[in-house]
Every structure is written in C-alpha cells, then in structure tokens.
Amino acid sequence: MTRIEVYDTTLRDGSQAEDVNFSVEDKIRITEKLDEFGVHYIEGGFPGANPKDARYFRKAGKLQLQNAAVVAFGSTHRAGIKVENDGNVKSILAAETGIATIFGKSWDFHVKHALRISLKENLDIIYNTIRYLRERLDKVFFDAEHFYDGYKDNPDYAVKSLLAAREAGADCLVLCDTNGGTLPGEVKKITSEIKKVLKTPIGIHAHNDSECGVANSVIAVQAGARHVQGTINGLGERCGNANLCSIIPNLQIKLGYGCITDRQLNRLMETSRFVTEIANLRHFKRQPYVGESAFAHKGGIHVSAIAKRPETYEHIRPELVGNSRRILISDLAGRSNVLRKAEEFGLHIDKDSPQLMEILATIKDLENKGFQFEAAEASFELLMKKTLGLHRRFFDLIGFRVIVEKRKEGEEPLSEATIMVKVGGHIEHTAATGDGPVNALDNALRKAIENFYPQLKTVKLIDYKVRVLAAGRGTSAKVRVLIESGDAEGRWNTVGVSENIIEASWQALVDSIEYKLLKEEE
After folding, report:
1. How far apart are the C-alpha atoms of 58 and 255, rounded to whole Å?
2. Which ranges in 38-146 belong to alpha helices (H)?
3. Residue 259 belongs to what H/E stretch?
4. Could you give the dihedral angle defined by the CA atoms of residues 56, 58, 59 and 61, in that order, rounded to the nearest 10 degrees?
5. CATH for 396-521?
C-alpha cells in the first residue's frame, strides 16, 4: 500500500478564514484532536507573525503527541538581509519544532512585481533559507507558492525554484495552487511532468477558489505526489483550502492509498464536528462524507432500495467515516421511510397495517399545512405513537393568556403568561414572566406542571427558530416554529405551525415536554 503523508494546516491556513479566530487554547485542543485522528504533520502557525502563535508553540512543545509532529511555518528570508539575521528565520528556530515549512516564490510574476528583486536573487534566497534551516532542523518542507500558475507562465523558472530548494536539502517540494484557479487536467499534466524531472518527494497544496481543491489534491497524488496538505472542513482564506475530510476518504477508501488507520478514519466525522464547534461555526450538513445529510434518504424509492442493498444509493458505508444513515420523513415519504423510522424508534408496524397508511396520510396532510418532520423527529415519533395508541396525555390545557406590555420608550417590553392546566384531578393556575412571550409561556407551563413531573427541571430549551411560510401575506402569514430541547441524556426537536406565532410555539413546546415524559416511562 502506497503511504501518503497527511499535512494539516487548519491552525495556520484555516485560521485565515473569514469568521474564524482561534485562541491559543483552541489551537492546543485542535492539535490534540488532530493527533488523535492520525494526521502526520500539524502546521501550528507562523511564529514570526504574531505573539499568539509564539505562545502556541511554547505550549505545543509540552504536549505528548502520539502520531503527529508540529510544524512551524514561515517565509524565505527577506532580500537584503542575511539569513542568520532575519527575524522570521530566527522565530522558526525559536519555535523548537524540529520541522519547518518555508514558502517561497516560484512564479516569476511575483518575483518581479511583489518582491521586486531579480530572478536569480529569489533563487538564492530560497537556497540560503532552506540550507540554513536544514542544517539546524530535522526536516524542512518547501512550499512553492503559486507553482502551477508560475509553471504555466514560465516553466523553466518554476522548475528552477524547486531545484534551488532541492539542492539546499528540502525534504519535500510542495506544489501550491495558491490562487486556487488551476483545473484538474492541468494539475495532472504539470505534476506528472515535475515527477519525471525530480526524484525528491513532492506534495500538493491546493485552494478551492474554483471548487477543485479536493479534485486537484487527489489527481496530484495519482500523478505522483506523496504528501497532501489541507484543512479540516476546507477552512481557509477566500473560498478555503482543499478539504481533508474529503481528500482522506477519497484516497484511502476509493483509491487504496494509506493515509491513516481504519480506526482513525472512523473518527473523521467526529473530528470534523470538533473543529466546527471550536471555530464556533455551524456544521455544513451537506458536506460530503461528514455532513448530517451525506447519508440521509428522503425519497421513498431510495429508502426502499437501501433497505434491500445500501449500495443502491450510498457510495460507501457511512460507518467507515463515523457517520450514519438517516431516513427522512416528508411528503415524499413512502411506506419504507415510515417502517425504517418505526424501527429506529423501537416501534412495530406491519407493512400491510392500515395504521401505516394513516400515518402516511397524516404526514402528507400536515406537511401540506406547513409542518416539517425532517428536522423534528421527536414530533414525528409522537405522531406515530398517537396513531398506534401508545401515547397518553400528561396534562390538559384549560387556557392560557400572554401579555406583552411596553411601558416606556427605550425600555424592553415586559412579557407575562398566565396558564391553567389540569393534571389528573388537579387544576393548576399560575403565571410567569419571561424574556419574550414564548419564554414567558414556557416558564408558566413548567411552573404549573413541574411539581407533578420534577424530571422536567433537567430539560433546557436549546434553540428556537421561526420561519415565515407564505411570502406576500405579511404579518398574517403562517409560521413554522422549530424548537430544540435537551437534557443530560440527549437532544430532540419538535415543530408547530400556525398563523399565530404563540400557538405554533405552544404546539412545539407541548411536544417537547410530552416527548421527554414518554421517554422517561420507557
């Protein structure tokens, strides 16, 4: 099996993404997670660029990593300054990583217009920097910045930049598509040509500006690259870097290359979500391999087929990358969808049962009215249990009233809810305030029934979303409310629909509470 070095630059290139700002503590946590995941190199940052990265390297040096080596990143020394006097070079050595990645110009256009030095002087700078560091470190990688654009413009000079790095002792020559505009056919042709000329190991560093970052990385490996750089979830400047969450399974599962162990590959989705959480971003549900929708099935024909043979509509087994199959419920659902969901919920429904057809008819009717069960599986489970006679009411509403009062300009409105419910033979009549009308109603309901059901004290309302369903009807439009609730055991989602936002919220709140109480009885 051909081994591929996996080089992660989430902490450096990924941190340059818009809306991403890792603290030193964040970077340490991600370093430990990436090491656990099994990448070979973790590019920790640019120690000469800011004090935060310098602090990171001091902390990272104390970690007991099992699989990965931390790498310091930096540029070639500045023109007119001796390499031993260059502050950037000094900071790389001060990071004490033992491994460095140095980027230098391989496109003559940049040498002439960005550095404004002679082409020969740029080659000398590359050679001097790598030679100086290679004599003092265990490994030095050379990132040939803008290599593919440079090769297309002036192939002789682009190759000379690689030769300068090779002669200086670089351990790997990394071909960079820095602007992200090179297409796969060009990457294959150029990488193949370079592989014929150079015996030094070569790598690929691709960006995603033309949506080809993953494809370019994979095809570069097929053309001879044995070192792949990228980021978790494709984080990076502009449109991002090549996404390791797709590159690794493409290479390992589809093409048979060895990147990490199979057990480590099982943690791909877990690692992806961990980085998303630390970056304080919303996980992209349609991301290949690791997204929630990657193995989600909605059409009845699809669900029926995968029940027989999963490979009919799945390109790999989701468990290989730590994901799982999901069956969605919507107005497109067929009997197979409902039967599979019943199996997930531990419910038995005969495929010829009239109850099955009743559930299907109810789904289609409710979704026509605006309900959505794809993101509200707790409400769907309740619907099924009601049809099967497995549901019971824990309280009956006698009535509620919600008041929103604004007493003075510039002050926040006051929200108060009064509610009367019947629990068994007892009638509870109480009131509560809240940060808004829905919060006040939630507080009042809990206050009324928590004495009877103390387990509800552990339930928290985690998220609340409202969507207007009928554009053009203004404030009289129907709204759909989705509520996410949770406790120490897990999370669940419920839905409500009405022209009145309070009523829609009430429906979702009641489902949330009933779901919790029914689960407690199981």
Report:
1. 39
2. 51-60, 87-94, 108-110, 119-134
3. none
4. 120
5. 3.30.160.270
What helix, strand, coil percent values describe the chain, rounded to 5? Answer: 45, 20, 35
**Is 168 strand, coil or helix?**
helix
Are residues 206 and 180 in contact, defined by beta-carbon separation less than 8 angstroms? yes
CA distances from 17 to 207, 216, 400 (A): 12, 20, 48
The model carries a pTM of 0.75
Matching fold, domains 5-260 and 396-521? no
- β 172-177/202-206 pair status: parallel
pLDDT in tens, 487-509: 988 899 999 999 999 999 999 99
**Cα three-residue angle 91-7-245, rounded to 5 degrees:** 135
Backbone φ and ψ for 431, nearest 5 degrees, come out as -140, 155
In a 13 Å sphere around the CA of 321, the CA atoms on its Cβ side amount to 30
Cα 165 from Cα 131, distance rounded (Å): 8
Is 202 in a helix, a strand, or coil?
strand
Q: How many Å apart are CA 81 and CA 195, to the nearest integer?
A: 33
- Residue 265 makes CB contacts below 8 A (sequence gap 6+) with 248, 249, 252, 253, 259, 320, 321, 322
CA distance 147 to 108: 10
Give the CA-trace dihedral at 109, 113, 116, 120, to 10 degrees. Answer: 10
Domain ranges of the chain: 5-260, 396-521
Report the candidate in 512, 374, 371 with the shortest Cα–Cα distance to residue 438.
512
What does pLDDT average to over the chain? 92
Report the b/e string of 45-79 with b at 16+ CB within 10 A. Answer: bbbbeeeebbbbbeebeeeeeebbbbbbbbbbbbe
Write down the H helix ranges in 66-182. Answer: 87-94, 108-110, 119-134, 147-153, 155-168
For every residue of 3-27, DSSP letters joined together read B-EEEE-TTTTGGGSTT----HHHH
**What contacts 85, CB < 8 A, 6 or more positions away?**
none
Long-range contacts of 257-261 (CB under 8 A, 24+ apart): 257/1, 257/2, 257/3, 257/4, 257/221, 258/1, 258/2, 258/3, 258/4, 259/3, 259/4, 259/6, 259/228, 260/6, 260/37, 260/38, 260/39, 261/38
Helix or strand (DSSP H, E) at 336: helix 335-345
Tell me the CATH architecture of domain 5-260: Alpha-Beta Barrel (3.20)
Q: What is the pLDDT of residues 85-115, one digit of tens each?
A: 999 999 999 999 999 999 999 999 999 999 9
Picking from 104, 32, 100, 91, the residue whose alpha carbon sits closest to that of residue 72 is: 100
* CA atoms of 308 and 328, how far apart (whole Å): 17
* Pairing, β 396-405 against β 326-327: unpaired
Helix, strand or coil for residue 466? strand
- Type of residue found at 54: A
